Amino acid sequence: MGTLKDLKPGQKGCVHGITVDGLMRRKLMDMGVTPGVEIEVNKMAPLGDPIEIRLRGYSLSLRKEDAQNILIVS
Amino acid sequence: MKLKRISEPTTESVVGSSVKEDDMKYNVALVGNPNSGKTTLFNCLTGSNLYVGNWPGVTVEKKEGLIKNTKENINLVDLPGIYSLAPYSMDEIVSRNYILDEKPDLIINIIDASNIERNLYLTTQLMELGRPILGVLNMMDVVEKKGILLDLAELEKAFGFPFVKISAQKETGIEELIREVENHLKESQLIIYPNVFPDPIKEPLERFNDDLMKNHPEILADTPAAFRAVKLAEKDDELMRQFADDQELIGLIDSVRDEISEFSGQDVDSTIADYRYRYITEMVKKASHHTKEDQISFQDRLDKILMNRFAALPIFFLIMFIIYHVSITLVGDVSIGLIESLINNVIIVFVNHVLSAVGAADWLNSLINDGIIAGVGAVLTFIPQLFVLFIFISLLEDSGYMSRVAFMMDRVFRRFGLSGKSFIPLVVGLGCSVPGLMATRTLENERERKLTAVVTPFVSCGAKMPVYVLMASVFFSAYQSVMVFGLYLVSLVTVFISAFILSKTWFKGARSSYLLELPPYRIPTLKNTMTQVWERIKEFFVRAGTIIFAASVVLWFLQSFTLSLNMVTTADESILADLGRLIAPIFTPLGFGNWVASVSILSGMAAKEMIISTMSVLLSGAQGSFTLSVSHLFTQASAFSFMVFVLLASPCMAAVATMKKELGSWRDFLFALAYQMGIAYLIAFITYQFLSRILG
Is the ipTM of this complex over 0.90? Predict the structure, then answer.
């Protein structure tokens, strides 16, 4: 099991859990990052960070430091 | 599915029945995610019957309008675009409180059908508020192109309220939507919607609610049971602050939380969000049928170019430069001359003809020519350029490029204590600081939000542009657009340096955060762009006719009379000149310590367009053209320093008032004002001292 940060553009995985508490956790869940959902990394920003992911049929962008807190099973 | 309905014990129904049917005014709230097409639908439903005002007591801009093409009297209220009803941002709190307190007769929940799962998340929260809901599936044209069929009956069965399909952009399904709204207005009962949670979560919540009813009937007494139980179980911040001391209540909450966590193996917040999505995923699966593989190749191809590692930043700066070059230089070259000649050769000739025909007195002649026409006309001259600038800003906002720039810039912005999301208020601020300041509300972190609000006015608003255009054309005619673009760079540098310093000092602890939806690229529609541009331009016309008109009259009076109220022979003896000379020494170190420039800066506090109007009024008695008179007031160095000062100094009154609202505390507000004035003075001082030594 790895984190979302480890996925390369084009790779997919399923969310296993979020390892951070507080506002960011709640925000991620509101945006649909919940256990079991499939996430594909679409691309990185031109400067390498943040990353763009696709889930539930839409695109969301987040920083790598936050992606690191999302556990993924490939 | 049959819905249980409980009649509401408020006086509303009693009042309603005593009033004649046709006098009934209904309130309908428009709620939905950002980017779901809310504004487009709002404009579509209300047409030109739109006005903007303020909530009583709440510092949020509300948009209201009467729905057209209906016999009923239906007032549509546009609430801020939100992803959830959790009270993390001001927008969310405002929407939640509006629905709970004002009890709208109907909620129109607009749902982007091409992104249906995420959009329905908010819906499951709205359902708990117990008001009648009408689901509006927007962007059906996009969905159908993707080959997805949505079964409305299945959706209604799953969520307990009816749905209609529309495309707000293509204006399809609007008639039907209005008929549906009419049909559902009369249901003023409290509605119990299907519970989205499975029994092991639902039952503890129900038992918890029964305990609440028994022991704490006063908590959220007015609200539906489902909402109350979930909010308390989630330990809603706002509620917890009120009941922090109630040990018995806390005990109740903790026991229901334990029960839910034990079942799910996660904490309560996650469980509730998780099961909302589980319900949605299951129901959407039942209601939708895919007939084609979905493809997003056009979007990706466009992104490959615009977000390319090497090309992205150059493309962005090129776009910004083109915007300013086209609106300032290309349009300005044609329009300024045209409008000036229209004013001088047509309007003034006509007015003077009338004035001499009726035998008007000298002072009236002077008031109309040197006061009103000079003042108001100076502003109107720049309308075509602002018009073009606003078209570009609106295109940036509507196309989806703006979010991409936020995505692209986050890494840079982060270094300065901001986030990529701060970019959006800054770009909106290019049009006007007031909506720019309001756009800071989408930032969740309080300190980061305030920090962005303090630096947003450093971005030059549209009303300041005429100053640069005038000064650049008089003093730097050979390289106008470079000069003006250079000013925008000064403003950008000031934003970043200020953010960096303030995030380490006054707003210490502002940890920036970033989570942003990237909406698909869309081709902006002509109608939508024009509506937005007209809204903004109208503001300028209104101000030209009111505040600038009035101020021009006052200025004319002050510059036409001496302190002993005799008419002056030259403006130098006037009250205004005395006043200007009083404050002029402040600006001497900046190079423009003359009374005309000082008075202009002062009157610019009312509205930034006044700076040009003031100069125009004050110099109208002078020999030669306006531009010639201006050229005598400044040197190249002091002209640039003047532009820098105008650019950075505190914004107009409207923006200052908005800044106070957004910052909340007087302490932060006064600091922000002092900081903005201080920085403006300092940088203008350095600019002048430096340039005057090179340019002489």
Answer: yes
